[in-house]
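Ticket #4471: structure export looks truncated?
Reporter: QA, pipeline team
Priority: medium

Steps to reproduce: submit the single chain below to the structure queue and open the exported record.
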Amino acid sequence: MRYCTRCVYPSAAATPLTFDANGVCSGCRVALQPQKVDWDARFQLFRELVDEYRADNNYDIIVPVSGGKDSYFQTHICKELGLKPLLVTYHGNNYLPEGEYNLQRMREVFDCDHIIVRPSVDALIKMNRLGFRLQGDMNWHAHCGIFTTPIQVAVRYKVPLMLWGEHGFMDLAGMYSYNDFVEFTAKHRLEHSLRGFDWHDFTDEGLDKLKRPELKEGLRPKDLLWGQYPSDAEIADVGVRGVYLANYLKWDANKHTQLMIDKYGWRAAEQEFERTYRKMSNLDDMHENGIHDYLKFIKFGYGRASDHACKDVRAGHMTREQAIEMVRKYDHVKPRRDLGRWLTYVGMTEEEFDITCDTFRDPRVWRIENNEWVKDNIWGEPSSYGPVHR
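Actual output as written to the record:
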């Protein structure tokens, strides 16, 4: 294990990461690029781009939204440019109250049409269990839904342009340069966001093909229509493309959040999260900053506090020393409040949960000493983080 000398990211990150000769990660290197970008010229490029897609009798653009701070900011920019956006949401059933409040207000504060896709609760509970047991991610369904339903709507309503916020893998790990003007692709959706799985793997037939019949939940293709990505021919017929606003406008989530609070009354979480210091992120799923993120710690040895601290170090809001303290305080925490709720939701015991968790630990990170899971830490000395469950 090695850690970036500028931020706090580990080499065994969940996103593709490299280090230069000085031990600085690719995410930090790419994060320096915005200082050299002519953002006025970039935004003019964005103006010219969206002008090509203005429609007389249709929506100008689709904005995939969760109701979060970034969703508000993307929609805000569209309205500032006089566009008629169609908002599209995948709803995973576990919104925080503040997140639900923000989501429902978007239609009103932005005067927009808004499509919310809400899969059946039974299917979502089954997908939670399956995602956890199959790949250690109970929120896999949300990644699939977020990166599928807006494209389905774009095809159905024949709206070719779609606006995302940041490219997550570029923002966190420097997977691309700001000069690449990377756009949304089906390849990235499948290979990175969905980690090689797709909706059909979660059906009974798909689990047979994966040789995991013991995981069957009785899901059929018609139960997962929201996860079925349009064909290449359907996408090509409409000309659907997804662009990232962060390529055209200097991105600072902290400043954008305050603007959305002041201008639109957007609400952050009222209760502190158990695993990170930020209260403005991931309000669309109460388990995203909790159990879902705890599983990232179980797999890779770091969590959401590291993600947030890296962003704040790169943006100049936090020193590396302060970031290390955040990592030390939050990354290892097993979120008791959140875990209790999720176990009840899916009908699972904590012992079952712990045994399954251990099967996903990355051997690059974890070793066993005296029947305890041990890993090396950014602050120097290794620590043990609980017993081996058998």
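Status: closed, not a bug. The export was complete when the record was re-opened. Leaving a note from the reviewer for reference: The radius of gyration is 21 Å.
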